[in-house]
Amino acid sequence: MPAAAPLRPAHLSAVALFLILWHGVLAGDYLNTRFELAEDVQGVMALLPVGPLWSEVGWAMSVWLGLAGALFLLFRDDAAVLLLFAAAVAMLVALGGLWGVLAPEALTGWPLAALLPALALVPLAGWLYARGLKRRGLLH
User: Would you kindly state where each structural domain of the chain is located, as residue ranges?
Assistant: First the structure.
């Protein structure tokens, strides 16, 4: 007799939908800034100075890998672990490129003082969550 599939945790959908929303907003902001869709809307990327090219590539990778990882998490696919890890690393790379460009006083002013840690911690927390589910056998 085949083993029964583990039950879906109640919090999985809420966490996955939060991550989809988070990365979806960043993806919309990326598209708006990249293609100048709505010039009067100032998003996250407009707050950050233009850094080196590798920082911009890290930003794009983090946004799109994070969105894909969140979708895979919603479908309980274990690829979410790798995608969310890659998104977290890419965001750390992107933010690392800003340290040489941003003035030290800009890092303590609102909203960057709250935004930069959140940009790094949300994908990292998503990866840790997905990894925990994978270790308990809840992702397949």
Answer: 11-135
